[in-house]
Each structure stands twice: as structure tokens, then as C-alpha cells.
Amino acid sequence: MKLELRGITKRFGSLVANDQIDLVIQPGEIRALLGENGAGKTTLMNVLYGLMQPDEGEILLDDKPVAIHSPRDAIRAKIGMVHQHFMLVPVFTVAENVTLGSEPVRKGPLGLPSFGLLDRRKARREVLALSERFGLRVDPDAPVEELPVGVQQRVEIIKALLRDAQVLVLDEPTAVLTPHETEDLFRIMRELREGGRSIIFISHKLKEVQAIADTITVIRRGKVVGERPPATSSTELASLMVGRSVQLRVSKEPAKPGDVVLDVQDLTVAGERGERSVRGVSFQVRAGEILGMAGVQGNGQTELCEALMGLRPSTGSVLLNGTDLSHSPTRVRLHAGIGYVPEDRSEDGLVADFSVADNLILDLYDQPPYASGIALNLDTIRESAVRQVEEYDVRTTSVETPAGTLSGGNQQKVVVAREMGRDVKLLLVSQPTRGLDVGSIEFVHKRLVAQRDAGAAVLIVSSELDEIYALADRIAVMYEGRIVAFRPPTISEQELGLLMAGSDPAGFTAPDPAGSTLPTGSTAPDSGGAPETPAPAQEPSSHE
Amino acid sequence: MSDQDEAEPSAAPYVPTATTTAQDTGAPGPDQPGGRQPLTGNAIIKAVTEGHSVVITILAGFVALLVGAVLIVASDPVVLRAWNSFGYAPGTAFSATWSSVAAAYSALFEGAIFSPGTISAAFHGGSIAAIFYPLSLTAFEATPLILTGLSVAVCFRAGMFNIGAAGQWIGGALVATWLGYAVNLPIVLHAVVCVIGAFAGGAVIGWIVGEIKARTGAHEVILTIMLNYVMYNFLAFALSSQSLMQAPGQTNAVAPSIDGNATLPHVGGPPPQVGVGFLIALAAAAGTAWLLSRSTLGFEFRAVGASPSAARSAGIRVERVWVLAFLIAGGLAGLSASTIVQGQTAPLTTTSYGTYGFDGITVALLGRARPLGVVLAGLLFGALNAGGTVMEAATGVPSDVTNVIEALIVLFVAAPPLIRLLFRLRSTSGAGPQAVTSKGWSG
User: Fold this and answer.
1) Is the minimum CB–CB distance between A46 and chain B shorter than 8 Å?
2) CATH topology of domain A3-242
3) What span, in angstroms and rounded, lies between the C-alpha atoms of A303 and A299?
4) Lowest mean pLDDT: which of A106-110, B115-119, B148-152, B230-234?
5) Domain A260-337+423-538 CATH (choose: 3.90.1170.40, 3.30.70.930, 3.40.50.2000, 3.40.50.300)
6) Each residue's pLDDT tens digit, A498-527
7) A54 and B CB contact within 8 Å
């Protein structure tokens, strides 16, 4: 089925989110939509899927205009969408989930409809048939909540295919996947393409669109700024996307590690449900070095950071420059010189309703010069905010603007400005560039390296391999609550990917190679690091 | 506004939170029907503190007055009869309606703001002071409402519901009354001690709520409601035991009258008088405004109210904020009690608390949980109360109509889409710059 978008324009007030966008997608084509956050990719797809109505323009299927006023119309027109956030019922099985909304009902006796009786067998059969056809290995009887994220995504894809989707929209599908799961998704996408389906793949990751797309459409500020073949260089794509030339990887000198700043011994943290989500982690970070904590999301990194900040109870010891902070409240840790950039900036890093100025003093509001006694010095707060907004290039109309109205990149700049604007000994940074565009990533990375060069110890937790490689002087890999390996940044991407998935290519007992490159900076890898289960969760096989 | 930011607002593409759906990405209005998020407590509070513009409030008042007019007509037999014979004399029906509504509302106005008659009387040798008599009544009625409204507002700003202003009011009333009759102190000092005692009494009751919430995580709505029952019954118990606070020789549940030295005087001579209580209310509003917007403690309150998780990550002790917010809220409710117990001649009884506590919620809602807003809302309700009495006396329209009007104003204000629909206003929510202009009073 050929899909054509013609002159799509969508405005929000004075803002033009989509400006005369034309797009033609042939059957059996994988088309990447590449653009920064806020470029208008998701808006365009929401228009296509009937979640929004365009102000101008039309949608044509096989050269015939169609009216899509709701997702229901879109499904009828054989357009399927897999959202960033899955729309699955966790306690339902795969089969139940994929048939949700179009439940096959069993015929009662004498061919009469029997209301409410689901035809589970038919649902199972269909799921299995599709799994077979496109290599989407999924167990139809497994409850969705027990499946890894990558498999849940397959369930979403099956859901769309079951409704006979000929055009499949995947909105940032790789954001939640491990490198391995991403490979798997790409394989499925190729098989779908062989089957004549077309796929619209939304992403802001250059490597991925280069790897999978047949054609790359770059969108900037609501306009199509170019269509390129996948062989186009990263630099060219990045500058098209951002509108200026960008440095994809910050240049940095080799680290000059100094004294141990952060010393963590045998830290154990309980998770939400009482399970131990961090299990006896020990490591050190030295002044002037960046330790990159790599790992697939959900292996204890979030809990580790929160425990280090005193936001979550833990056992074990945390020393900052020799001072025991193991049982100190968050406030004391902040004042002792830890700068903290939380993983979830909109939830934990910022108060969305507060002004930019107030957010810039969120953890300094009772310190001079911002307060005298219990009175806030509003003028000082404002002046310093103006200065920091300038210095950190935060794009905002004024320092009184609520931080929640800024783009993700600018929000992160506010957090970064706050945490780096004071004298920090340790910078604890979790997923610093998640959801940021290329330009903002460049900015944040530069700042982090500058902090390192100024003598701060930096701990970066990230699930992005590129980020780890770009910044880390030493890499620690977390898997199932443990640090399973320390490696130098020269480690191959393949090996790192395997470590993150819980299987060690070289065996866990191998000595920490970082030990030789950084004679002072290495610690013994967690001896009990071998996971009991080497990642069987990645590939649950179909029951048939 | 940095150009493209709004296109995919808060798209935060990686965060797999189940609450946000894809429909959210890009859909601007936060108060469109259906809403962006499930209405959790925090979202409700958010809707309260930023929800309505001044325009919406004024229009809501207008609609409420229209509905009130229907009630006035319905309560007037003359008008009803005129409508029954509508077929014969339609003009009569309309003129009767008009005159009935006009009479009632002008009586309401004269009772609450000023009566033109007093001005002409003043020119003919009457009392100039009489001109201000209705206003002084309004201030008098508004005083306790402003204070309980502030009490509720402080908790709103810290992200909590204070349904317990009534219980805290009783706590303050008991302490002020006891200090008023059981202690002998010189004039002025005695009154000051009683006022401070009332604050402390209310603060203790509020503190209990905050402390239990901080220690156990119990929800403050349940705590405050239950504590209200405890206080209602404790008041009845204390006022009916001779060994506690029952007035000697009384069989009714009533406290002894407080000492003359402990009463709050009126300033400005013979009526019209402005009670010192009203000045206390204004001072409390100013103090609360300073606390909330210019102090470090208020910064903590607002941060916890807007985002507890971000506040916690920034090292703010959230539990401590809960305790302190409830302590201050309780104290303000206690002050409200002091203006009644010390400002009126009647001794404390089992019904003295009236509906001040719950009216405080409506006042805080209407005032958008901002001190200046609370003062204005309190004055509006005070005016309606004061005018309602005069209206009932002058035209026979039950003063309950004003209560209906008060409730309707808040109801319409709480549902801005309804008002927008009625007046075909464009939604002003969503985009940043417009949202700012719709923020009217921001005391």
C-alpha cells in the first residue's frame, strides 16, 4: 500500500509544528523520520494515526484521499502504530492483549452469538501464525508483565499486524531496548518489509536510521529539510537535523586521576518490592576521572544513584573524601559536595511549575547568597539566574518562565547549570542526555568533561553505549544489581553489549584490564559478580 | 518561547511511564475534558492553584447571580402568581420578576456595601459613620472566613488538603476561652495572650495531623476528618463537665464568658467599627503571603506542593514540610477561633464553630490558595453573608439564597470549561505566554 502525506500543516497557537510536510512511502519500504525532539515527528505521526487533525493537507492511500479522524479510522485504513509507551494490560496474556478491542467471540450453539465468550483458541492461533510468519517469537500464553520490554514491543507489533496493518509506525522503538533487542527488532522490521509492509521508523539516533532505513527523511522545525539515502555520513545527517555543524563526539584529553573521592563498599539497596535491586556493589571514583556505569535499564542503576544520594535506604558504606556519608540525609550529601543530575529530570530534577530561576536554586535556596536567615533574596536569585541562563545557553523567554514549558534539552541545561554552578567534588549524573537532541547532547557532554578537567570526580550512569564511549575513562558494567566487570573504554562494542546482557565473553574471573591502564584508579571487580542466570530472559521461545 | 518546544511538549521519549499516553504528546490544553492525567490529589491541588483566571471568576459570579435570581423568583409568591397568568398579562410577569429580583439584590448590595440612603441622610445631619456600617458588617463576616481560608490555602500550597480547619478551630477556641476566663491579666496583654494561645491551640491540632502523616504516611484527608469528630465531641464533653470548662451553675453545654480584658476591641469608636479581629486577619494574610513567596520555608512548601519527588531529590525534608505546613495551618484556624471567641460577646458553645472550617475550603478554592485571593474571596463571602441577612429582613427572600450563590461561584470556578462554553471563550490554557496573562492575582 502506498501512503502519501500531502502538505500537512499543524499549528498549536502561534507555533507551527508541521509546516507543509510532503511524504511518499512506497510499499515494502522502511522510511526513517529523523529529527530532534520537538521537530514535529510525533505530531506528524499523530496526524497520520488520527490522534490529531491537520489544519491543512491530506492523506492519500494508493492515491485515494482518506479521512482519518480517529485511531479507529486509521486502523480501518490499515495503518498501525506502536507507541513509545506500550498500551498493554500487564496482567493479561499476550493473546488476550493482542485481541483487546477486537476480541474474537465464539459462536454459541446453533450458530447464535454467545455474548462475552472469548474465542481464546482463535486468538492463540492467530498470534502463533503471525509469530511464525514474521519471526516474532512470542509465547501467546505468557502474561505481558512477565515479558522483557523487547518482547512487549513485539506484542504491540503483533497487535498492529493482527489488524492487518500495511503501514506500521514505530515511534522511537529502540529507546527502551538493549543493543541486542534492537538488532532483533531490525531483523523483524526487515522481514516485515519482505512481506510488503511499509514501516515508518521514528528516531533521533543516527546510527540506527543508517542501519535500517531505505530512505531517511530529516525533519527540522516542522519542515522536511532533506531526504537522504542511508549511506549518507553521520556528520551530514546531524548537521541537517540540527541546522548547524555539530561535534558528534567531544574531544577530551586522557584522564589524570587524583585521589579517591567517592568510595563505595558493599552497597546493597532494596528495590520497590523489597527485593535486593543493588547487591553488594563496591567501586571508587577518583578526582579528575569519569567512571561510566553501563548497563541495560533496570539492572539496579536507578536504585544505586538514589542510594548514593540518600533517597533510598541502603547498607554498606559510602565515603566522600573520607567522610562517612552512609547514613546521611540527602541535604547533607548535597552540601558535602555531591552534584546530582537525576535520571528523570521532569519528575526529580525539576519542579515543572517553578520558574527557571527557582529551579536554578532548588537545592541552594537556603544558602547564602540566595537567602539571609529565612528570607529569600529574590533579587540575587534573579540576577544569578540571568547569569546562568546566559552561561549555559538555556533558551527561555525569561527566568520567570515555568521550567516545565522548556524543551527537554533546555530543562536539562537548567539542571546541569544548577548542579555544576557550585563547587562540587563529585558529580553523579544519571542518563544525562536521555531524550536530548544532538545539539544538547554535545553541550552536556562538553560540560561534563570540563568538570572532570576541573578536578571533579564524575560518575555517569547511562544505558546508551555511545554516551559511555564518548565520556568514560573507565567503564563499569551493571547487571542484575551487581557490577559484573570493569573495563577500559577501548573495549569493543560487541563485548560491552554482551556484558550488559549478562554473559561474559571472556569469563567473569578475568582480571580487570582497567587495572593495568589505570594503576591507581581501579578497584577489584565484585568477586561475586557472576550472575546465576546468564540472560535467558532475552529470548523466550515460542511454545509451539 | 524557544520556537519548536511546544510541538511535542514534555515528550520525554524514553520514560516508560504508564500514565502518559501517546495522545498526550502534542495535545496542548491541560484542562481539556478528559484531562491529561488521572486526577490524583496533586493534580486537583494543581487545578485549584492555577486553574481559573480573574475573568472566569467574574463570569462565574455573574452566572451564579443569575441562578440566584431564579431562586429569588421562585421564593416570591407575587411573581409566581404573575407567571401563572402569563397568558393574560405577560408584561406583568416580566415586570414583577424584575422588581422582585432587583429589590432582593439591591437589598443584598445595601446590606453588604453601602446604602445610598445613608449618604443623603449624612447630608441632612445624619451620621457619616452610618455610610460605612454595611462595609463593617462585611468585614466582620469575612474575618473568620479569611483566616480559615488561609489555613486551607497554606496546606494546598504544600500539596495537602486541610479538611480539618474545623477541628483546629475548636482547638484554638478552647485554649483562647480557657485563657480568657481562668487567667487574670491586665488589659491588652490578656487579649494578646489569648490570641497567641488560640494560635497555639490550633497549631497543636494541626501538628498532630502533620506528625502522623510524616511518621506513618496516613492520608491527611482521613486524619483531619477523623480529628474533626474527635474535636466536636471533645468540645461537647468539655463544655458539659463542671470539672472542665462548663460555666459554673449552668446545665447547658456552654463555657464561662471570657474576661473583659481578653476581648478584642473594636477600633474607630461607635458603629461602624472595624474589629481588631479583621486587622488580625489582614496581618495573617500578609504574613502568609510573605512566608509563601519570600521565605525559605515557603520555598520548601511550594516545592513539596508542586513536586515532592523533585523536592526530595533537592534535599528538602518533605516530612518536615508536612508537619510545619499543618502546624501553621492549624495556627491560622486557631486565630479564626480567636476572632470569634474574643470578638463576640457570646460564650463558647457546642455550635460556635459553625461552618467556618468548611467555608475555609471554599474560600481557599475561590482564592486560588493565594493569600490576596483568599482575602478577596473571604470579603466576597462576607459581603454575601452580611447582605443576605439584610435581604431576608427587607424582602423576605431567604438568606440561604446567598449560600447557594457562594457554592455556585465555586462550582463554576472549579469547572472553567463550563464557563468557557457558556460564554464561548477561547481556551487560554496550554501555551506559555497566554497562560501567564491568565494569571490574575498572585499574592
Assistant:
1) yes
2) Rossmann fold (3.40.50)
3) 9
4) A106-110
5) 3.40.50.300
6) 888 877 655 544 444 443 333 333 344 443
7) no
